[in-house]
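tokens incoming
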């Protein structure tokens, strides 16, 4: 079964893990082939919305559609085939680098793996490893930095080539080189896909086609970065605070 399209719509969606709603009556359009950033303070519901889109849970009220179809009517296997996840705390296996990337597509040839690794900016650190692509990376990738692990996860998603990507940006502060490499890897991944990015760095969110700002489970603002900065609401305030704290840490 294939999907008729990749526009994702949340229609009056509410959700609670326990008694209290943590997603409150959200209506949001996520247009296909574009990047939508979810931003907001800690606990505002960003990950919960991503999990609802991936159908880890169903809404308590309202519905979510993809290509006009209610997620509840989409065969789970089809849904998973059409989505890639680049989340924090990527699970890596005690196997070679190549096999860790191959998880994106079972039976992928070495050439495909190398292409994905290059696009995801992994080839530099892999080339420095003693046995290159055949290097064992240890339990949960202990020999790799956080940025390198995230790039492996992007290489997997590139190999999988799913039209919808859910991406949870790393919260850990990265050195500028790692940050640039990750941004390049993400740019390769988002090309032509429908992307939902949980953006912790609001500078990243500014590059999205659309930003949805959440606060305590409510959608409080949406628009382009420029629109939201002009509106001078929550996004503009959070952005200023983050820029100031970045300024201080650079100045120290
Ligand atoms: N598995 C869970 N069981 C119960 N409550 C949860 C669970 N996961 C999240 N919550 C609660 O739901 C609310 C929204 O959490 P969510 O993880 O979606 O926020 P977030 O915006 O991703 O936050 P952060 O920026 O800190 O990652 C929070 O109050 C959180 O404590
Ligand atoms: Mg979160």
């Amino acid at each position: 079964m294939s999907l008729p399209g990749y526009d994702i719509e949340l229609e009056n969606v509410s959700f609670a893990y326990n008694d209290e709603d943590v997603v409150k009556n959200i209506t949001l359009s996520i247009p296909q082939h574009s990047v939508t950033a979810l931003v907001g303070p800690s606990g505002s519901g960003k990950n919960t919305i991503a999990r609802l889109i991936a159908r880890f849970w169903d809404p308590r009220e309202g519905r979510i559609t993809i290509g006009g179809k209610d997620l509840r009517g989409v065969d789970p296997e089809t849904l998973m085939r059409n989505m890639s996840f680049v989340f924090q705390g990527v699970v890596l296996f005690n196997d070679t680098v190549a096999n860790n990337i191959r998880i994106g597509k079972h039976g992928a040839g070495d050439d495909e793996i190398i292409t994905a690794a290059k696009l995801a900016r992994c080839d530099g650190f892999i080339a420095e490893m003693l046995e290159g692509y055949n290097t064992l990376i240890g339990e949960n990738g202990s020999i790799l930095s956080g940025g390198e692990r995230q790039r492996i996860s992007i290489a997997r998603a590139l190999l999988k080539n799913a039209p919808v990507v859910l991406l949870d940006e790393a919260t850990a502060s990265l050195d500028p080189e790692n940050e640039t490499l990750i941004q390049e890897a993400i740019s390769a991944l988002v090309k032509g896909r429908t992307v939902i990015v949980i953006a912790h760095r609001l500078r990243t969110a500014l590059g999205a086609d659309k930003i949805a700002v959440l606060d305590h489970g409510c959608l409080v603002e949406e628009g382009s970065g420029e629109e939201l900065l002009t509106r001078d609401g929550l996004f503009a305030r959070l952005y200023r605070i983050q820029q100031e704290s970045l300024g201080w840490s650079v100045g120290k």
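note: The beta strands are 8-16, 21-30, 35-39, 61-66, 69-70, 83-86, 164-168, 194-198, 210-215, 218-223.
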